[in-house]
Amino acid sequence: MAKNNDNGTEKALINIGIVVDARDETASIWAKWLVEQLKEEVEQIFPQFLWRFSILKRRDFSRSVPPDPLNLLEFGSDIKIEYGFDYVLVLTSFPLKSRFEQGVSGVPSNMLETVVISLARILELKDRKRQEKALISLVKHCLGHLWGLEHNSESVMRPRKFWSGEPPFDWSQQEKRHIYRHLRDIADPRVEETSPIKSKWKFYIKVLSLEWSSIFKDVLISRSVLMMFHLGRFIAATAVSIIFLFLSAEAWEMGAAIKSGWLDIILAGVIFASIISIYFGQNLQVISRSDRMKEQAVRSRIVLFATLFVGMVSFWISLFIISYLIINILPENVLAGWAGMGGKPLPAFHFSKLMATFGVLASAVGGNLEEEQDIKALLVYTEET
Ligand SMILES: [Zn+2]
Fold it and tell me: What does DSSP assign to residue 100?
């Protein structure tokens, strides 16, 4: 990010783009109001930065009704990379398609550093003052997420079902300090601005070494641990194959034949193959389309891969625990007979590992049956609010 010398002191620039559909009059009018209001507030709270807001009226805005926040996030993220914004806010007057919640007015994405805001429900509020209060608190809530904040019932970060213009309207003192530190770190020059790196791998490693802590946080915030359980068909495919495995003697015989060391290698291979299969099978690589090695595009890709990895590993661990429980519940002599173990005791740990590995393999196939958009949304959304 560029530094400037406007008023004698060096201030880091925070460059925010507001994107609206050129044909959406309502959104354009509100965008203008929002920029004035937001600029005034953040300049007062964070005078350490130079704030720049630009409104972009686009003619290639998505025309689907209701607009899918996922498409708008991708659209906003492309514009962010193209224009070199730090954050992008996509504003529409149409109600958004909701995936996980009842109704949705805002969808922030930490991964894409973009927010989609819908005015539809807010404009149903009676008086203008309420509408303004509701919009500004929704925007501050979503930006708060992008700037590393978690939910907090005492501040504007309180999670809400409906944005009705009720207080609290502001971040807490502690949150303001957190945002300041976050923005100060972000305001460091981007990798491509400081050093022209030709090799793709070197660029990835450089981004990783500079941003590993914030990437780590993003992966955990996106709650990838529970991600896999949101996917209905994914779970169904896994459950069915696990049940069949448990009922087939061949699986037990095979388990008895595979050495523990080999099983570990197979396990690593299966987890890697599942991630690759979901990543490319679901076209997740197109989330950050830009081919140029922009730091932000590379960062999004690393976060996406890491999220998928954490999701898969935690999924394996859950399957392992379930298998271990089932093996301990079933009569041991029957299982040992299936496994052809003779009179020897059944190695429950080894078999649980085997079943969980088969489960992940089945899930990778199931994962590719799942609606591509839903998997993407789970990975990309920070929340629906
Ligand atoms: Zn929230």
Answer: S
Q: Which domain holds residue 338?
A: 200-380
What global pTM score does this model have? 0.75
118 CA distance to ligand 1 middle (Å): 15
285 lies in the same domain as 366: yes
Q: Are residues 142 and 214 in the same domain?
A: no
Amino acid at 173: Q
Please state, in angstroms and rounded to a whole number, the distance separating the CA atoms of residues 277 and 368: 8
pLDDT digits (tens, 9 = 90+) for 118-154: 999 999 999 999 999 999 999 999 999 999 898 999 9
How far apart are the CA of 108 and the centre of ligand 1, in A?
8
| Ligand 1 centre distance from Cα of residue 198 (Å) | 39
Q: How far is the CA of 383 from the centre of ligand 1 (A)?
A: 6
Decide if 385 is inside a domain.
Answer: no
| Contact in structure between 329 and 246 (CB atoms under 8 Å) | no
Considering the domain architecture, whether residues 182 and 278 belong to the same structural domain is answered as no
Per the structure, the count of domains in the chain is: 2
Kindly tell me if the per-residue pLDDT of 112 is higher than 50.
yes
Kindly give the distance from the C-alpha atom of residue 171 to the centroid of ligand 1, in angstroms, as a whole number. 13
> Which amino acid makes up residue 225?
V
